Amino acid sequence: SSQLSSLPLQILLYVNGIYYIFYFLATLAMIIYKSQVFSYPDDFLAPDLAVLFLMAILEVPRLYLGFKGNLTEAEAPLGLSLGLTVGSVVLCVYLLLWQTYVLWADVLLNAVLLSAYGLESGLKVTAIAAFVS
Q1: Which of 24, 90, 131, 133 has the maximal Cβ count within 10 Å?
Q2: Count of domains in the chain?
């Protein structure tokens, strides 16, 4: 029997996991910085932090299901991971476009993350197609 799991997807999931730790810490530090330097309205600080922490909570099962689905060649966990990726993309777009203050570093960090999500999603769809056929 042939192996259908995707090595590029596995590598990208691993790199995404490492990058997300950096992304989370950098974004958290920037939110703290912005709350100290700019006149950050208290009503908007909590939602920005909530989105960042919700994104971190989604990232764990998203990566786990991606790893598991790819390695076991099972389309269900990989499909669930793809669904969670859509949720992560929405939250990332919020942090890119709609958070209270958006710095150039926010744009850079979110652009890299969105690019990785896009590439990862394409590889997931390709892997699911290979598993199904």
Answers
A1: 131
A2: 1
Domain encompassing residue 59: 7-132
CB–CB of 106/96 below 8 Å?
yes
Confidence class for position 1, pLDDT limits 50, 70, 90: low
In a domain, 95, yes or no: yes
Given this model, what pLDDT does residue 76 score?
97
Burial class (CB in 10 A: 0-12, 13-18, 19+), 11: exposed
- Ramachandran region of residue 73, left (φ > 0), alpha (ψ -120 to 50) or beta? left
Distance set, CA 111 to CA 11, 67, 105 (Å): 19, 23, 10
Six token digits for residue 120: 């990862």
Cα dist from 104 to 41, 76, 91, 113, whole Å: 20, 38, 18, 14
Q: What is the pLDDT of residues 112-133, one digit of tens each?
A: 999 999 999 999 999 999 999 8
What pLDDT sits at residue 2? Answer: 83
Residue 2 domain-assigned?
A: no
